C-alpha cells in the first residue's frame, strides 16, 4: 500500500504538517507529499491510501490551494469508488460557526463521489492547547493501520 499525503493550505500550516507527517512516517512507509493544487481527481488511484490535510478559510471554505481540486470534483463529478482516504482538518475555534468547515466540505465532496473514508475526521484548533502534529501523528498511524486491513495489503 502506497501512502500519499495531500495538503490544502492558504498560509502554509497544512504544508508544514504534511512534511512533518512525511518525516515521521517515512521510516516505516514509502510516502509522498503533494499540494492539492497539483492534483486532479482523476490522478487518484486505488493502490494508494490518501492522507488529506486541509485547513479552512473565508467563511468555512476550502483554502486557496484546495479550491481548484474542489471545483474539479464539482465540475466533473468523477467516480472515486476505488479511492480510500482519511482526512485531518486545521481550523480555529475563533470561527465557531465555520470551525473546520474546509475539511468537512472536502470529506463530503470525496464521499459523494464514492470514495471511502477511513477513520473519523480529526480536527486541530489553532486556539486550543494542542500542537497539530501531536494530534495528527496518532491519527495517521491509526488510519494507516485500518487502511492496511481494509485494502488487504501490508502498510
Ligand atoms: C482570514 C482567515 C479565515 C479563517 N476562517 C476560518 C474558518 O472559517 N473556520 C476555521 O475553522 N478556521 C478558519 N481560519 C483558521 C485557519 O484554518 C487556521 O489558522 C489554519 O491553521 C490555517 O492553515 P493553513 O496555513 O494551512 O491555511 C481562518 C484563518 C484566517 C486567517
Q: What is the structure about, briefly put?
A:
The chain is of the alpha/beta class. It has 4 helices and 6 strands, in the order βαββαβαββα.
Please describe the topology of this protein.
Blueprint: E1 2-8, H1 13-25, E2 31-35, E3 48-55, H2 67-76, E4 84-91, H3 101-112, E5 116-117, E6 122-125, H4 132-151
This protein binds flavin mononucleotide.
Residues 9-14, 55-57, 59-60, 63, 90-92, 95, 98-101, 126 line the site of flavin mononucleotide.
Explain the overall architecture:
- With 155 residues, the chain is of the alpha/beta class.
- It has one domain: Flavodoxin domain (Rossmann fold), CATH 3.40.50.360.
- Helices cover 35% and strands 22% of the residues.
- It has helices at 13-25, 67-76, 101-112, 132-151; strands spanning 2-8, 31-35, 48-55, 84-91, 116-117, 122-125.
- Strands 1, 2, 3, 4, 5 and 6 form a 6-stranded parallel sheet that branches.
- α1 (13-25) crosses α4.
- The N and C termini lie close together (5 Å).
- The model has no long low-confidence stretch (mean pLDDT 96).
- Residues 9-14, 55-57, 59-60, 63, 90-92, 95, 98-101, 126 line the site of flavin mononucleotide.
Amino acid at each position: 500500500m502506497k501512502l500519499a499525503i495531500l495538503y490544502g493550505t492558504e498560509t502554509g500550516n497544512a504544508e508544514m504538517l504534511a512534511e512533518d507527517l512525511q518525516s515521521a512516517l517515512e521510516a516505516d512507509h514509502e510516502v509522498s507529499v503533494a499540494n492539492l493544487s497539483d492534483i486532479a481527481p482523476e490522478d487518484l488511484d486505488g493502490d494508494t491510501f490518501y492522507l488529506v490535510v486541509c485547513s479552512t478559510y473565508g467563511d468555512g471554505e476550502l483554502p486557496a490551494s484546495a479550491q481548484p481540486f474542489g471545483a474539479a470534483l464539482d465540475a466533473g463529478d468523477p467516480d472515486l469508488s476505488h479511492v480510500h482516504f482519511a482526512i485531518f482538518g486545521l481550523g480555529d475555534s475563533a470561527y465557531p460557526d465555520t470551525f473546520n468547515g474546509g475539511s468537512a466540505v472536502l470529506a463530503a465532496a470525496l464521499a459523494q463521489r464514492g470514495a471511502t473514508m477511513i477513520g473519523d475526521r480529526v480536527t486541530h484548533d489553532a486556539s486550543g492547547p494542542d500542537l497539530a502534529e501531536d494530534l495528527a501523528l496518532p491519527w495517521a498511524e491509526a488510519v494507516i493501520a485500518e487502511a492496511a486491513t481494509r485494502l488487504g495489503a501490508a502498510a
